[in-house]
Amino acid sequence: MSVKVKICGLTNLADAQVAVDAGADYLGFIFYPKSPRYVTPAKVAEILEALDLSSHVQSVGVFVNSPLESVDAVLRQTGLKLAQLHGDEPAEFLAHFSGRGFKAVRPIDMDSAQQASVFIGYPRPPAPNLLLDAYHPSAYGGTGQQADWSMAASMAQSTPRLLLSGGLNAANVQLAIATVSPWGVDVASGVESSPGHKDHEQVRAFISNAQRAP
User: Fold this and answer.
1) pLDDT on residue 144
2) Considering the entire predicted model, what is its pTM?
3) Angle in degrees, CA 23, 167, 180, rounded to 5
């Protein structure tokens, strides 16, 4: 079975359509106002309505330290299927989403990576168990920094649906998959022409290379 692919940081219909046509499994939309890839709920609702997604393509809202009621409101307004909690949210927040929510973590070392196990039991398919992003002392993702692949490989052994993020692009995604053996891969800045705008050829190459990884 090929690795799942999530194209994240989408802000417009053209980019989202390219991702779908190229075979993306997950589309990510960021609702963190400090992100250069921030998009409004109204815009995402418009994009999703225009896409008319088939059942195998999952739409994901990315939230950073948002109150649960705010996340609920965005999910209702947009029709998004899954909630990715990318801030400092506690594991108890995931219970609220009845399997539709999953946590992103940015471990600095193996000790903190092992602590992430508290999050993996809440999500249910098609949600990942966990997203692993690169550590950064002040940013909540989208930095383009590469995650620690040795740490990720260790986590993948005990996390059935580990989604690997952090510094991936079309050129290195096959090596990342060979090294880590993740369930899925996630990319935002690695397939952009500028923040919030995708390079369509890079999107297609990333998805193709990930799906063809040995």
Assistant:
1) 63
2) 0.94
3) 75
